[in-house]
Amino acid sequence: MADQIPLYPVRSAAAAAANRKRAVYYSAAGPGPGADRHSRYQLEDESAHLDEMPLMMSEEGFENEESDYHTLPRARIMQRKRGLEWFVCDGWKFLCTSCCDWLVNICQRKKELKARTVWLGCPEKCEEKHPRNSIKNQKYNVFTFIPGGFVLAVTMTREAIDEFRRFQRDKEVNSQLYSKLTVRGKVQVKSSDIQVGDLIIVEKNQRIPSDMVFLRTSEKAGSCFIRTDQLDGETDWKLKVAVSCTQRLPALGDLFSISAYVYAQKPQMDIHSFEGTFTREDSDPPVHESLSIENTLWASTIVASGTVIGVVIYTGKETRSVMNTSNPKNKVGLLDLELNRLTKALFLALVALSVVMVTLQGFVGPWYRNLFRFLLLFSYIIPISLRVNLDMGKAVYGWMMMKDENIPGTVVRTSTIPEELGRLVYLLTDKTGTLTQNEMVFKRLHLGTVSYGADTMDEIQSHVRDSYSQMQSQAGGNNTGSTPPRKAQSSAPKVRKSVSSRIHEAVKAIVLCHNVTPVYESRAGVTGETEFAEADQDFSDENRTYQASSPDEVALVQWTESVGLTLVSRDLTSMQLKTPSGQVLSFCILQLFPFTSESKRMGIIVRDESTAEITFYMKGADVAMSPIVQYNDWLEEECGNMAREGLRTLVVAKKALTEEQYQDFESRYTQAKLSMHDRSLKVAAVVESLEREMELLCLTGVEDQLQADVRPTLEMLRNAGIKIWMLTGDKLETATCIAKSSHLVSRTQDIHIFRQVTNRGEAHLELNAFRRKHDCALVISGDSLEVCLKYYEHEFVELACQCPAVVCCRCSPTQKAHIVTLLQQHTGRRTCAIGDGGNDVSMIQAADCGIGIEGKEGKQASLAADFSIRQFRHIGRLLMVHGRNSYKRSAALGQFVMHRGLIISTMQAVFSSVFYFASVPLYQGFLMVGYATIYTMFPVFSLVLDQDVKPEMAMLYPELYKDLTKGRSLSFKTFLIWVLISIYQGGILMYGALVLFESEFVHVVAISFTALILTELLMVALTVRTWHWLMVVAEFLSLGCYVSSLAFLNEYFGIGRVSFGAFLDVAFITTVAFLWKVSAITVVSCLPLYVLKYLRRKLSPPSYCKLAS
Question: Name one Pfam family in it (predicted).
């Protein structure tokens, strides 16, 4: 890697000269703004000491600092001439350019997004116009769908059908009815008619139509669950909380009796954050409530529990889901682009040949009329039927993929690009649900001195049972109940805790510190809201399921249930646990600090209702927790050990709080949450004041199980020369674990973890450090990636492309799509994106070839993709077998269709040359139509059944795939070979017919046409590599069609026009002379090519032939 890039080029003399010139200019400016700029320039130049170590950039790249952009254009303007001379010389250009730029800016100006105040139930109070709440996934409008001609009818019909289906899907979504709350009661409105400020009621299992603030719910707890799999790709339910002020109102209609509004930040793409305030003006004093992400209901999510009422704050293209979806592009395959280039070359050849003919005529008479005649005569050079043949071929390839029993459930949604599957160089894959099953299993608990694995979980179970039975007997032995345990707790740190008590503390922390809610299926006969008391609820194990925002948390709570401590109930303010003996322990939830990508940890403050103790529990990644917990000598080492096993690690800690400490914290925390400026920073600062010297309890290890056959599939793709990049929204540590366990990164390879960078200087130093590494995989976070791409886009991509594997973690949906686009722009290679969630849609649509997996995260990815498969392992056969066959077959088919047009045009050129360059057609009417259709269509199209390698061989030797990416099956070299073959055969056929039939010249048309048909059929046989029974049928069918039609073609076998009087003589074509002479011409045109093919196979066989032999 380092050998290809100069490490430390010194500054050039030209750069120094530029500095001197700049210094002269600034000193000439004298005191004032110029001098200020000079001093600022000097400061920037001094601070840019990093540029002494340039990063693969030209010297100009470093000379042009920001100061240059401010000053140099101004210097040029000062030197401009003024007055009439200036206007005549340069001014008019300057004014015209300025006017044009102004018009372009006016036309292309994007609407500026602003924060908004939304009055509840009063859309008419909105100060500005907001977009309609409709969805549009269509690619065209009426004006862009103008027909391009009859030949393109097949392509256009397919596109029109696809577009109509998209229109119907959009119409279906936009026509969904919702209940809108008005002063007069509920009214039904279409989704597309919803406005900002409307109060919308959404029932259980109904899609949320627009971005809303959650005001009320039918659930007594004041909260509800929503499913977000179509928004962020996560299958777990999210807990959302209603605004307390509106939830407390006695009735639904009271929403119109209060004067309240919501202040919402401007629309933005981040689906994980929101800042706003709810204000009720008619109370004394006015009520102000801070709003965060937990008070929002984003569009495209599904209500999973209860009925919700929300006020609409963003609609249409301003919703989070639409802002995170890129516009679908019309994908064109590389093979189609290559054939287009060859067709342009053929068009130039057509014009050149026509001009040559007119020139050789001597430009006599109305030469331009002759030129157009020749253009029409030689128009068969342009393969008009190529598009129809290819489109029909693509349909066949798609049908073969869907019928392949080895990859059941495969669906081809975009039939225009099957050849792309055979040209891929970069595969960008999602992690969760694509490489992994998204099923977490608890594997390891480490307490510092002792570690428990899957085979020793029964020991933990007995320790938990013993400790709770002991506590219960202590509680039963005295009447006060709460006092002795508190005394025991306060004295506990003074003595070394027993293993049993440490296990008890660890399990208790794990079962309390989470965001999991147990959900019970409603029992028969109970509808609507549950009216029975807590004690009567059905807490049976088989009736309970857990819901959380992370599958890791569900795995932890399921594990605590297996060892005896069960989470049985939870709402916004309380939590109930069941001990092994069946006793229910109640805890009051005082505060909850959810997990964020910045903090990498989550926390909870609970009060034990039996003892009134307040405890702050926290769990998170080791990098975030190490500075927070008390000093220890084992955490870092054990985290490394677990990571090497491919486990996701979480560090669990706790801290006891007094009532005074908590009250002080709560007042500061509430104040920080109401701030509208830098709210997140202030809140984080208050929480961090608690996170000091916490007691380390345990380290947990959870395994995310891989999909079936992921390792061999990745190995196969790597051997095929495909570079794999993993783009995930997951944590850096988790992504690194999966990269190792899936063998995306081999065990012998080093991993370079790109450290967090926030500015240009840090990015520069880190890139230089990375450049010195050889053959190592790169792991980088989304934030650092953003900084690198801002300052060193070209350099970063160049370095990353040389890595055997790249892992990008904490990627947003738009970042994933941006990485795909970068690879396309910088490498010019074909990219493929594969994912299974709604967060992968942008990436799938941006890639040259998008593959969606139908999985637990819904069908959004598979519906948006070009190809849909059931499992990741199916991608191996899709690329190695179907990708290879589609590309090879289309390349052969395309070139053969071109050959078919070139050979008949060559014959026409020879014929015209012999007749003193007369613009007279050789073949007329049905002969020309029949030549391109029934006489040659079936054999030529049967090439879509050809295959050079058996599927088993292609899967066994993925290295064969590397040759495909070089594009050797269709190139200017192969094209020129076919052109030469066409010229040779066309010349032989025409001259042979003229030489051998000098005495029967009137029959030259019948003779040459018969030889032409036979030659084409033999050429198909020459091109075929593996015979299929349908190919043989096609050959004989075409020959039979020609022979049987001879009786009806007598009027077409005259020379030039029918009035020449030369008609087909049936007796003549049955003579031995006719038959042997036609055979002789055909043999001379084809035999040398068969000999050359045989010699080439013997002397320089292609790689697949060596394997087959």
Answer: PhoLip_ATPase_C
pLDDT for 842:
86
Mean pLDDT for the chain overall: 80
Is the pLDDT score of 699 beyond 90? Answer: yes
Q: What percent of the chain has pLDDT above 90?
A: 37
CB environment 1086-1105: b (16+ within 10 A), e (fewer): beebeeeeeeeeeeeebebe
Q: How far apart are CA 316 and CA 300, in angstroms?
A: 11
How large is the greatest C-alpha to C-alpha distance in the chain, in angstroms? Answer: 130
DSSP 73: H
Which CATH superfamily includes the segment(s) 426-438+704-876?
Answer: HAD superfamily/HAD-like (3.40.50.1000)
CA distance 407 to 870: 8
User: Is residue 699 exposed (0-12), middle (13-18) or buried (19+ Cβ within 10 Å)?
Assistant: buried
Strands (E), 318-463: 411-412, 424-429, 436-446, 451-452
Q: Are 795 and 56 in contact (CB under 8 A)?
A: yes
How far is it, in rounded angstroms, from Cα 363 to Cα 1042?
Answer: 40
Q: Residue 202: helix, strand or coil by DSSP?
A: strand
d(CA 821, CA 1050): 59
Instruction: Provide the CATH topology of domain 442-467+500-519+543-703.
Output: Calcium-transporting ATPase, cytoplasmic domain N (3.40.1110)
Q: What residues form the annotated binding site for ATP?
A: 430-432, 553, 595, 619, 648, 728-730, 810, 816, 839-840
Tokens of 173: 């979504």
Rounded Cα distance, 733 and 807, in Å: 11
- How many whole angstroms separate alpha carbon 729 and alpha carbon 440? 17
What is the model's pLDDT at position 113?
80
Level-2 CATH architecture, domain 118-324: Distorted Sandwich (2.70)
pLDDT bracket for residue 656 (50, 70, 90): very high
Beta strands in 331-489 (DSSP E): 411-412, 424-429, 436-446, 451-452
Q: Are strands 424-429 and 830-835 parallel, antiparallel or unpaired?
A: parallel
Residue 1103 pLDDT greater than 80, yes or no: no
Q: Compute the distance between CA of residue 733 and CA of residue 639 in angstroms, rounded to an integer.
A: 10
Return the residue matching tokens 């391109």.
Answer: 932
pLDDT of residue 10: 37
| 430 is an active site residue | yes
Residue 277 class from Cβ within 10 Å (0-12 exposed, 13-18 middle, 19+ buried)? middle
Rg (CA), the chain: 38
Beta strands in 135-184 (DSSP E): 177-182
Cβ atoms of 767 and 784 within 8 Å: the answer is no
Q: In whole angstroms, give the CA distance from residue 944 to residue 254.
A: 69
Is 844 in contact with 851 (CB distance < 8 Å)?
yes
Residue-range domain boundaries for the chain? 118-324, 334-408+885-959+976-1055, 426-438+704-876, 442-467+500-519+543-703
Residue of 430, 848, 866, 948 marked catalytic: 430
Does 143 have pLDDT greater than 50? no
CB 557 within 8 A of CB 581: no
Element (H or E) spanning 123, and its range?
none
Given a cut of 70, whether residue 383 has pLDDT beyond it is yes
Residue 1006: per-residue pLDDT:
78
pLDDT of residue 473: 75
Q: Which residues are annotated as a binding site?
A: 430-432, 553, 595, 619, 648, 728-730, 810, 816, 836, 839-840
- The answer, yes or no, to whether residue 978 has pLDDT greater than 80, is yes
Split at pLDDT 50, 70, 90, the class of 219 is confident
Nearest CA among 74, 42, 209, 193 for reference residue 123: 193
Binding positions for Mg(2+): 430, 432, 836, 840
Nearest-angstrom CA–CA distance, 372 and 379: 10
Q: Assess contact for 652 and 645: CB atoms under 8 A.
A: no
